[in-house]
Known about the structure:
Elements: H1 10-22, E1 26-30, E2 41-42, E3 49-50, E4 54-58, E5 61-68, H2 74-90, E6 95-99, H3 104-113, E7 121-123
Amino acid sequence: MIHEDKEKYKDILKDSVDYLEQHGFENIKADAEGYETPKSFIKKGSDITITPDIVAEKEGRQHYFDISLKSEKPKLLKSKWLFLNTLSVIKSRPFRLITTKGHYKFTSEMLDDINLNNKKLIKI
């Protein structure tokens, strides 16, 4: 999600954290009450900050997660996903998208637009 959508979809963020906990993820960081906020990355020469929605560990390996929901600013969301995908490749950490019913088509079209159609979605 982008910052503007976080308040509107905070229940889906909580459901996503619950899903990951049930699937064996630990040391979860999320921009949700009761959790430490994940590390943010700042674009050089600007005031743009990118923060993964969720960072969690499983079997000693850190994973990045972003929640994909319909957004008024799809260009920002695409940029965020491209950055997180690149970061995950550089750091050898998996990057996955979490989405819900009613947002599958939006997510698939967005991934096709930025050539990340090899991403397997987590559907909750």
